[in-house]
Design brief:
Elements (H helix, E strand, L loop, with lengths): L1 H16 L7 E4 L3 E5 L3 E3 L2 E4 L6 E5 L5 E4 L2 E4 L3 E9 L2 E13 L8 E2 L4 E2 L4 E3 L1 E2 L2 H4 L6 E5 L5 E3 L4 E4 L3 E9 L6 E8 L19 E3 L5 E3 L3 E6 L9 E5 L4 E3 L4 E4 L3 E9 L2 E13 L6 H10 L13 H6 L7 H11 L13 H6 L1
Helix pairs in contact: 3-5
Length: 354
C-alpha cells in the first residue's frame, strides 16, 4: 500500500509540474535590433512548445536596455545582449544583440593612433567625437575599399596586409546619409640608410607597445620605430606637451587626460619622420620629486664629448654649449614634469630667476 501511495504522489507531481516538450524551441528572427534611446519594442522572438510565461529574460547590461513585461526598452547609448531562456530547461535559449543610439546622430570623425602601418601592423579604429556622435561603432556598417590591403575585425582592429592605400567607410545602419571615411597607408620601411646606418628615406613607421597607444597619466609608454637601430638617434617631439611629453629614445610620459601627437625625425633630414597619436587617461599618482632625483642619479658616469658635446645639449638644440642648466631641464622632461612646473631653460641665470 505504501509503494502504491508513493507512486501515486510521483505521478500527481509530474502532472502538476508538467513535462518538458521534446519540441520546445526558442529563436530570435534577427541577429541584432537597433533602438533609439527611450524607445520601446516588441522582441522578435519565435518559440514553439513553450508558453510565453515560461520564458525568462536577461540583459547583459541593464543600463543599456531591459525587458519589462515582455517589452524591450532602450535606455542609453551602447550595446547589450538579451538572452531568452526556457525556465524548465536552460539549455533551450536564444540571444539577441541590442544596440541603442540617440535619435539625432552626427557624422563621426574616424581616427586611429596611426594612419601609416607596416604589413602586419595593427591599430584600433575609434571615433574622435565619440561623446557627441550619439551612437557607438556597432551602429555603423563598415567597409574597406581594398580588403587586400587592410582587414578590420569585430574588435575594430585594423591590420595591414600588403602595401597600398585603403579607405575605411562607416555608414549608419539606420540612416545611410550619415557616413564618414578614413584612409590608412600600408608601406614598408625604406631600406636606404643614412651615414650612421639609420633610416635614410621615406616615412618612419611608429607603433606603441599597446594597440591604441593609451597611457595612464604619470606613467610611461614606449614608442617603436620600425627598422631603427637606435631610437635615441632620432629627434622626438610632442605636439601637446600639456597632455604627453616625449622624452629621449621614444619614451612618452602621460601628463593629463587628452590626446597628443608624438613625432620622431631623422636628425639629418626633417622630411624623414613619423607620427603617432597617444591617448592619456586618468590622473597622475606620482612622486615627481623622487622621480626627478632618480633621473638625475641615473646619469652618474655619463661623460661629455669634445667641446661640451652632450646629449643634453643635443636634446635642447644647443650643441657644444655649457650644459649644466640644460641638464636640469632635460631631467625634468625625462621625468614627465611639464614646463609649467619647471621651465625649460639653458642658462643658470634664468634658472636662478625662476
Amino acid at each position: 500500500m505504501k509503494k502504491i501511495s508513493i507512486t501515486f504522489c510521483a505521478v500527481l507531481l509530474l502532472l502538476l509540474v508538467g513535462c518538458v516538450s521534446e519540441d520546445a524551441a526558442l529563436a530570435f528572427s534577427a541577429e541584432e535590433l537597433i533602438l533609439k534611446t527611450n524607445e520601446n519594442s516588441s522582441l522578435p522572438l519565435l518559440f514553439e512548445g513553450i508558453k510565453e510565461n515560461q520564458i525568462l529574460y536577461e540583459s547583459s547590461d541593464p543600463e543599456i536596455a531591459i525587458i519589462e513585461d515582455g517589452v524591450l526598452k532602450g535606455l542609453k547609448i551602447g550595446k547589450t545582449v538579451i538572452t531568452a531562456t526556457y525556465e524548465r530547461n536552460n539549455e533551450i535559449s536564444a540571444e539577441l544583440l541590442v544596440i541603442v543610439e540617440n535619435v539625432e546622430i552626427v557624422h563621426p570623425i574616424i581616427s586611429s593612433s596611426s594612419d601609416y602601418l607596416k604589413p602586419s601592423g595593427m591599430t584600433e579604429i575609434v571615433f574622435l567625437n565619440q561623446e557627441s556622435v550619439g551612437a557607438i561603432r556597432d551602429s555603423f556598417h563598415w567597409e574597406i575599399d581594398h580588403p587586400e590591403i587592410l582587414s578590420l575585425d569585430s574588435e575594430w582592429v585594423v591590420t595591414g596586409l600588403t602595401t597600398g592605400l585603403a579607405t575605411i567607410t562607416a555608414t549608419l545602419k539606420t540612416d545611410p546619409s550619415v557616413r564618414s571615411s578614413y584612409q590608412i597607408t600600408v608601406a614598408e620601411t625604406s631600406l636606404i640608410k643614412d651615414e650612421n646606418g639609420e633610416i635614410g628615406a621615406g616615412r618612419l613607421i611608429l607603433s606603441a607597445t599597446n594597440l591604441n597607444a593609451t597611457i595612464q597619466a604619470g606613467e610611461f609608454l614606449e614608442i617603436e620605430i620600425d627598422g631603427a637601430l637606435d631610437k635615441d638617434y632620432y629627434v622626438w617631439k610632442s605636439y601637446g606637451n600639456q597632455v604627453a611629453m616625449a622624452t629621449s629614445a621614444g619614451r612618452v610620459v602621460g601628463v593629463k587626460a587628452g590626446t597628443a601627437v608624438i613625432a620622431a625625425f631623422s636628425p639629418l633630414d626633417d622630411a624623414i619622420y613619423g607620427v603617432i597619436t597617444v591617448t592619456v587617461v586618468g590622473v597622475p599618482n606620482v612622486d615627481y620629486a623622487s622621480r626627478l632625483v632618480e633621473t638625475a642619479l641615473s646619469q652618474e658616469g655619463y661623460v661629455e664629448g669634445p667641446n661640451n658635446d652632450t646629449k643634453y645639449g643635443d636634446w635642447y638644440g644647443l650643441s657644444n654649449a655649457e650644459w649644466c642648466a640644460m641638464f636640469v631641464s632635460w631631467c625634468a622632461n625625462q621625468s614627465g614634469i611639464t614646463t609649467t612646473i619647471i621651465p625649460k631653460y639653458a642658462s643658470c641665470s634664468l634658472g636662478r630667476e625662476w
